[in-house]
Records
---
Amino acid sequence: MNQRNERLFRDLLIDCSYFVRHVSPLRQGLWLGTFVALLIGSYATSQDLVLLPHRWEIEPELDGSWSYPLRTAKLFQQPERITSGSQTRRVSEAQRAGLLSSFEIVEGRAETFEAMKSQLVNSPPTDRTEFLAFVSAVCRMADSDEAAWLWKAVQGQDLAIQLVVEQWATKVHSKEPLPSWRARLDDLESEGPGLMVAIEGLAEVGGSEDQQRLIAWITQEDTAVPVRLACCKSLGKQVHTGLENLATQIVTSNAPMRELLVAYLLAEHDSSAARQILLPLLQSSLAPATRLAYDNLARNDLALAYEHANDMLASGDHYVRLSAVNVLHQFDAVEDMRQQAVAIQDENPTVRRTVREHLIEKAQQDPGKFRGAVDEIVSYQLQGGSWQGIEQSILIAVRLEERERCPQLLALLEHTEPDVHIRAAWALQELANSPDIMQAIHEYCQGWTEKLDQGNLIEHKIILRLAYLLEALGRNKYQPAKEMLQLYVPKNSQKMNPITRTSAIWALGRIWEGSQNLELAKQLAQRMLDNDPIAPEADSVQYVSALALGYIGCKESIRPLNTAGPVPPLKLGHAAAWSLSQLGESSFLDSRRER
């Protein structure tokens, strides 16, 4: 569990209502503005997700502490409850011990563990539920050093309880249950979950003497398919050479799922004989078999994997397609890059994002060799490829700072797919800087601004798109947009929408930067300080209003800015402190830092 999630879980464990009571509307706005914009129309996650921040979120780049900090709370256990006279308390505390096992610091954890250990060793609970709660908690908390007494403690208990310890022993590579596992495998009539756990255990801690046990189950005619698969997987994990004859015997038999059996068996083999057996599996109708076979080739014979990469790009399994993309990326010919670029419009987001990152990497590492080809690929996609290819090409254009793409991006604002038109608007906010493009953006924004001003309801995806474009006007300090942007300042029952108002007010601040426009500063100060108990101003609007006052630079703004900063400082306080610093003033934040 990573640190941030651990902190979140800690707070929720102590007080589940904390999130509801303390997450501000501004942070909700951030989610709507960036997270929704990013994920709309898509449900997949990847390490290569690209965030689409609004400009006011990152400019100026304030300390992240303007967001509400997560509350820290001390986690603790009550070991005395383990020996309580109440069975409910004993079970509850054991369950809590298991729940908290993933956290690094828990007060009373060691004492609780020792209390449960003492109970299991010296006076085992007679109630099955209580015994199981203790054993489960101990398995979550213990390392392999505890295996001997724990395995002894569950002897005589039913198989379900023993299996809890056996599965834990497999994870910590303990050999304590090994005799029991071997006994189960020696009985060719064994069945059920106990047999499967034994097979898995042998994969982790078994020795060479266990190979024949597994082979006996594999070659027995009436062995169930799941058991045979588990045995092949276990044997293949243990043995990395010499199973080619057994694999040939299986692949030429009539055994169900024989191709997957062989793929598991030879997964770690690197001999040429093994590759010859695995090669036909690339055409298997069983996707896992193809995946294992191609992964083996990619690790052990890159040239052979390269020969089949084009066929693998057409596989119905996205893992296979991803492997093919990664194989092609290891070669430096332009044609190899073009070949993997076909997958930039893959239906699987991880595959297409991987291709995107590969193209960017090639273009940046050797522009003279690859940049022209990457530009051709991007142009082709933007001219009418699938929406998946277009979205990735937009992101490539931004990363490579291809401002010449702006006319194409303008055309994509009317694309039917939100993943495309929202990204196009964000990309224009990042790239647009020429007068003709700015004029086109202004005219586009005017049309939607008029609709909002007339009280029309506009879809959220269009609001997001419009917000990015308003920010583009601000980044470029586009003077003709002043009058239009002014329409977003009054609250007017939020008819202009808080998201677009936030972007427009930030843009006004940038356009009027250094102007000392007193009239506008007064209006923005009112927005910043509007805490009407019935209909308060949106948090995000208050925040950017404070920022805009710093951009505009009126000395008359010092007093309202000092009024705006709450203690302890929240997001508005940090914005006010930044603006005061732009006006040459210190703030309450400075005095707190000095202390």
Note: Residues 42 and 419 are 8 Å apart (CA to CA).
---
Amino acid sequence: MGYYWETTTGRRPSKSNGSRIVALLIIMMIVVSAGIFYVVTIGPENYVAPKAKVRVAILDSGIDIDIGLQNRVAVSKSFITVANGYDYTDLTVSDSRPEDVPHGTIIAKQIATSPNIEIVNGKVLGEGGSATTKALIEAINWAVEQNSSVINLSLGGSPTFKDPLKDAMEWAFAQGVVVVASAGNDGDDGVLGTTIDSPALYDACIAVGALLEDGKPAGFSSIGPARDQYMKPDIVAAGYTTSPDGTRYYGTSFSAPQVAIAAAELIGHSIDGNITYTAGSIMTALLKGADPMNNYPTYLVGAGKLNTAASLRLIQESSVDGELPAISYAFPGELPIEYERLFASDVYRFNVRILTGDNTTYMTEVTSANSEAFVVDDSFVINQIGRTVITIEVPESGVSSINGTITFTSEDFGATSLHISFDVNTAIARVAFDITHTPWDIDSIYGQFREFYKILVENDISVTEIRDRSMINLTTLQQYDAVVILDPCAYDINETDPLDLSVFSITFSEEETQAYQDYFNAGGGIFVVALS
């Protein structure tokens, strides 16, 4: 397993960087390029940009200011220092041009297409195209101090245990800042399943996937859902742009800035119209206003294609007397995921994300002929963003399908709904995937074992994931004809201190080992699936 990724390698390259990589986590820019000319247009022709000035922080490789960017960059600072975990110090704020690509400058030129935006330039990517977590966190804090309303992160890396970027995203969001990040370029046409990068993986950050010129999702665009059973990416936009020399660049690096522009313009229009806004209300409007792409799964395209004009209409039409827009959004809007297959006696769970403008209570109503199968909270509180667990207990018999709608209603922010529909199949065998001893984010039915899962369920074998170590006991294990242990004791990085990383694995306790021994002796089948 590796601790960083590059567009030219697999998700987890070999551990070849020695103590340097153990000393710090590396965040990489997300870009590929080709020498073909193409002009990108953003937004409908009749769309009018706002007048209010809004600051957007670009935390990237620095910016080369030419005629097109004169008077557009309000403040700049470099975070490339030895103290932040780099091998050298570079206090210049011009573009470091990693791999000879003016990455930050390209992003800045994209964002500068919106006349109301003032750019905040935070340099975190060095000549090698990498940044340390510590530098990125410092840059995020600084960007907030500089009154940035939006932060664009066209970079990402493999999620780690105790990833401090999660807290950084939540802190910035709590300060009212909309954080937008590239979903990642590890899609590989879905081979690995879930591949959303950090920090785009986290709820407080908008994960942006990429579309190609024909409007179809890019094969390189990272996909979800997340291992922790919630949906990502959030939205998609065109994943390409063109430099003045005619070079066309592809990547989620270039889809993220379009959403950052949209967020800044929604904020600008809110200021122009004296409409109250929060990071949550802007995020909700972006996802709810996106154009649905019903021919593609949500785990590939999120809420759909960015539509700034539609999101603006939502804000303007749902705000009364300048108050927060009365909008809510349940994400995803449909379950189960298209390749999930459920059987009689299965228990299905998924974390549905709820987005809205402020702290509010939602009441839950289930409409279904099989309402007894739905286990949901009668009410719950959401502070702009959050999750609610949906559980479906499939009856043992007498039901051939389950259909229903769960409606979440806030007195202040209106209603949003989730639709459930699936056939109930009869299993010829029951298998459990034990993922409790692997820390890897790709180890689940949503990750690299998705195809294995699909083969089993297509052959009428029920698959349940064991996600809680307390469930590793003889009584629970004997519910299954076989247990598949995925990547047991795999090594990963603990990033509690981003400058003092440690390697760890999740070992088996004596009680767990005994439970598996007793299960095997009682006739249970045990399979271990791991990398060589």
Note: DSSP finds eleven helices and 27 strands in the chain.
---
Amino acid sequence: MKDELIIGRVRSAFGTVGEIKVESLSGETAHFTALRVVDLRRGFGSEIFRVESVRTTHRAILMKLEGVDTPEGAAALRGAEIVVRRTDAAPLEPGEYYYGDLEGLIVTFNGEAIGRIKAVLESGAHPLLEVTLVDGGSVLIPFADQFFGEVDHAAGRIQLMDGAVLE
């Protein structure tokens, strides 16, 4: 499993002092208030910031980063992924997974490897797993209980329950 996790994304600048509006990828917000350092990544670039303050409203997470003091500076961070150490991420409930931990898992059906998870994509009701198939094709499968069974991180596998999604 990865030591670092993407927990959010910078959506926009907010206000006049350089705050950023943040989207939580997990939907959880409480762990953001405990953050002291974040790594913002976009493309191949990465920059570490000290967190000056975090506040949550009923609609948003607002974060003030050291050295970002203007709306223009905050706007320049739009689209960046917020990366933290695993220990700083929201705790998981049973049956929950960090998206980054699913990427790279081998997908099996009836005991045979059929592909590997390339990416996890946000979607309406359920995230979609982009699976690169062993034959070279790819398929998007909803990450939902009716399609997937056991996730075995130790073995690096996830079990597909319904082969109809491959057709």
Note: Residues 99-166 form a domain with the SH3 type barrels. fold (CATH 2.30.30.240).
